[in-house]
Design brief:
Layout lengths: L2 E8 L4 H14 E13 L4 H4 L6 H20 L6 E7 L2 H11 L4 E7 L3 H6 L2 H8 L3 E7 L4
Parallel strand pairs: 1-2, 1-4, 2-3, 4-5
Length: 145
C-alpha cells in the first residue's frame, strides 16, 4: 500500500543523509503521495541570535529550501506533491509535531550506521524512532571516514 503522507526529516548540513532519505521516500511514494521535506534548524539562544546579522535567519532558511528543492528534483519527486518546511527547535519534537499535524503515515530519516558514540549519547534518529506513533523508514548510509 503506498503511503499517502510522508514526512522526510533532512539536515542540510549532512547532504549524504538528506539525499538518502529523500531517495528512500521517492522509492515508497505512490502516485497520490504528498511528501513533506522538513529541515529543523538549530535553536539559537537569544544571546547568540543578537550577535548575528538581522538577515541571517532569512538566508539560512532560503539556502535550506534551495538545497531541499534541488535534492527532491534529483530524486524525481513530483513537484506538485512535494512540500518544503523549515522549523526551528529540537529535531525530535519538530518532526513528531509535523507528523501529527499532517497526519503522516510514514516518517523517513537518513542515518549513518550507529557508532559506539551514538549508542551511548543517543541521536535524533533514535529519539524519533523511539517516540514516533507512526512507522519510520530509516535509510542507512555509510559514515564518512
Amino acid at each position: 500500500m503506498p503511503h499517502v503522507t510522508i514526512i522526510v526529516a533532512v539536515d542540510v548540513n549532512t547532504p549524504d543523509l538528506a539525499r538518502a532519505a529523500i531517495a528512500g521516500a521517492a522509492e515508497v511514494a505512490g502516485d497520490d503521495t504528498a511528501v513533506h521535506l522538513l529541515y529543523v534548524r538549530y535553536y539559537l539562544p537569544t544571546r547568540y541570535s543578537e550577535l548575528l546579522d538581522g538577515s541571517f535567519d532569512e538566508h539560512e532558511e532560503r539556502d535550506a529550501l534551495a538545497a531541499m528543492k534541488a535534492w527532491a528534483s534529483e530524486a524525481g519527486l513530483a513537484p506538485d506533491r512535494t512540500h518544503f518546511l523549515t522549523r526551528r527547535g529540537r529535531v525530535r519534537d519538530e518532526v513528531l509535531t509535523e507528523a501529527a499535524r499532517l497526519k503522516a503515515n510514514l516518517v523517513v530519516i537518513g542515518s549513518h550506521q550507529p557508532s559506539l558514540t551514538s549508542k551511548l549519547l543517543g541521536s535524533n534518529a533514535s529519539a524519533i524512532i523511539h517516540q514516533s506513533p507512526v512507522s519510520i523508514l530509516v535509510v542507512r548510509t555509510q559514515a564518512a571516514e
